[in-house]
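=== Structural record ===
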Amino acid sequence: MDFGINFFPTDTTLQPVELAKAVEDRGLDSLWFAEHSHIPISRESPWGGVPGASPLPEKYWRTHDQFTALAACAVVTSTLRLGSGICLIAQRDPIWTAKQAATVDILSNGRLQFGIGYGWNIEEMESHGTHYKQRRALAREKVLMMKSLWTDEVASFEGELISLEPSWAWPKPVQEPHPPIVLGAGAGPKTIAHLAEFCDGWIPLGRHELGPKVGEVRQAVEDAGRDPATFQLINYGSRVKPEFIETLLELDFDEAVFAVDSKSPDEVVEALDEISEFVAQYR
């Protein structure tokens, strides 16, 4: 099993280039950057869409542009896999996003992992013209459009909500047919259908039930005529506890991703040291 780091890259903490080098130097396998375009101060949506959640941390409205930060990391590392963790695809332009992701994949020589999510912040989505109740359907159609942009010499797409006339679009990603698409979400019926249809992996967040859902997702992938052995399972919010990692190993997860908070540079480095020391026992 591989081990990675999830991080909110902001202007107040260890910067992406130094962070990426520190993560790779410690023998960890991946680095994932969160994103939010902005946070409207109305703050009607609770943190994570969970009623009664704690106040939203400042890092949510201070994040760097996700793909610019990943591109910077790509050119100072050689083995570290770089993940969008997660890309809020429902509120993004899929044409520009396809180009940005393909560029990072080229600069990293095929090390991008395209993590996506539906999103939870209603006000943020509305600023982008995205209706909350359409976010799942939009995410699906935008990813399908991006697949065409990544793989077809003449890309096109016709959906119920969006469309793309026949178009030329380069660069194409290094990875074939495209970077792995991994969806971060709780696995309800609609999400499981999407995982089986157009995703290459699933990121269940730390609070989501793992055991039964893993079996459901793998079965859905198999029922769709795909090999579940090639479908990635990546755990976010992994705990630095042997019993938790043992559970992931028993469930045959491909990767555990630990969250490191966006504190002072010295505190970030200290957290990376603690995590790398912990994972050494599983190497």
About this structure: The CA atoms of residues 188 and 213 lie 9 Å apart. The longest strand covers residues 81-87. The chain has one domain: 2-282.
